[in-house]
Design brief:
disordered N terminus; 435 residues; mainly alpha
């Protein structure tokens, strides 16, 4: 297999004489910009996780079945996936700041409308718009990282972003649970709108442009599609993209089903659910930091990714066996333990899959980031209704979706990336020093 360089595409025909980014240099991002990029990647867990404890209340408030209310998650995820296909190429053409600011403005308006939704159907529609607009923060944050970093430095920075964005799923359900003490589910969207307003103001004031005019692409959507075809023609890039996407399906099956599994099946309160959800997020963040500060530079990124996928498969298998009653009637503790292991493994799986995919490209980072995000969110959107297909009183569909997603992810990694076939440039020691 060749080194981590993708086949030529129209976007990769730039020469080294391109004007450097105004923020490139030895110290490429300050603490505030790093924090802001982490917050932008956190728009997804904020929009999802702060809302999760209120799902059972939404079903009662809007007089809708659980499977319909879970479509509010599906709509948001589908919007996040489809929106990235548009925003990513636009950011390659217009720069990062303009599409990001427009997206945050629409996100703010859609979130405010969610708080006013009179029916489940209108809430689903507003959540779709919220996802479409929120895609700007997710896809452009990744593109900015690729503008500024390469090799192991990029893998380390993604782990740093996971520390920041990973705090969102820790605190968001806790905040959501506390909001439900003083108001109803509509208050959750009021808080989300306020967070969107603060993010927009910070981007306007503090986030510099990282893609100079000399490195932008003047072509339209046809050229963007041609660039994406070139990326997809690179088999390892597509393999890493699909491995990360189907692993994310296992994660989102947990996100979508766990409020009902933990609260309805095991009888936990919204506050207990929030604490357990936060604990699982701590595991994800901790594993991400071990990845960035200990493993990167010492172990091949491919080996770490393989280990992460193996742990997810094992944890999903355990959950399925427990949910199906193979071990008899089990309590919440062993199920929560298996979910903790699964979520912790995501902390090494997702950032390394993204890093290995982005190492395949150098230009058109927006388009590549869009493909990575779209594959993850669309697969997650399909997973959401599947976990509720058998109703609210069994965890078997959640476990089946998790195991299926993790097995497909492992098959894509082994069959398309073929990490054993040759010594490739994925060791941080050979990459990080040059950054």
């Amino acid at each position: 297999m060749p080194e981590h360089t993708a086949p030529p595409t129209p976007e990769r025909e730039h020469t080294s004489t391109s004007t450097p980014s105004p923020v490139r240099g030895t110290h490429r991002t300050g603490p505030l910009v790093t924090f802001l990029l982490g917050c932008l990647t956190a728009t997804t867990p904020l929009a999802m996780d702060m809302y999760l404890p209120s799902l059972p209340e939404v079903t009662r408030s809007l007089h809708a079945p659980a499977v319909t209310v879970q479509l509010t998650l599906t709509a948001c995820m589908a919007g996040l996936g489809l929106g990235q296909l548009v925003v990513g190429p636009l950011s390659d053409r217009w720069g990062r700041r303009r599409p990001l600011l427009i997206g945050l403005a629409v996100y703010l308006a859609a979130t405010a409308l969610c708080a006013l939704a009179p029916t489940a159907e209108t809430l689903i529609a507003f959540r779709l718009v919220q996802g479409l607009a929120g895609a700007a923060g997710v896809v452009i944050a990744r593109a900015v990282v690729r503008d500024l970093y390469d090799g192991a430095a990029m893998a380390r920075f993604f782990s740093t972003l996971m520390l920041i964005s990973g705090a969102a799923p820790i605190v968001a359900p806790l905040i959501g649970g506390q909001i439900l003490r003083v108001t109803d589910w509509r208050g959750v969207f009021v808080v989300l709108a306020a967070v969107g307003a603060v993010l927009g103001a910070l981007v306007w004031v503090r986030l510099p442009e990282t893609l100079p005019p000399a490195e932008r692409h003047s072509g339209g959507m046809r050229e963007a599609l041609r660039a994406m075809r070139g990326l997809l023609a690179d088999l390892p890039f597509t393999g890493y993209m699909l491995a990360g996407g189907f692993a994310f399906a296992a994660l989102f099956a947990y996100v979508s089903a766990s409020p009902f599994v933990i609260q309805e099946i095991y009888g936990a309160s919204p506050q207990t659910f929030s604490l357990l959800f936060g604990l699982n997020s701590v595991g994800l963040v901790a594993a991400g930091q071990v990845n960035g500060k200990v493993l990167v530079g010492r172990v091949s990124l491919d080996k770490v990714l393989a280990a992460g996928l193996a742990v997810i498969v094992l944890a999903s298998t355990a959950l399925l066996l427990m949910s199906a009653g193979v071990f008899g009637e089990v309590g919440l503790a062993p199920v929560a333990a298996a979910l903790f292991v699964l979520m912790s493994a995501m902390g090494v799986t997702l950032p390394n899959a993204q890093s290995l995919a982005l190492l395949r490209i150098r230009h058109a980072a927006g388009s590549a980031s869009a493909l990575l995000g779209t594959s993850s969110f669309l697969v997650g959107a399909v997973a959401s209704p599947l976990v509720g297909i058998a109703g609210e009183h069994t965890a078997v569909p959640m476990a089946v979706v998790q195991l299926s997603g993790s097995l497909v992810a492992a098959a894509c990694f082994v069959g398309m990336c073929r990490p054993w076939s040759t010594r490739r440039n994925t060791r941080a020691g050979s990459e990080g020093d040059e950054n």
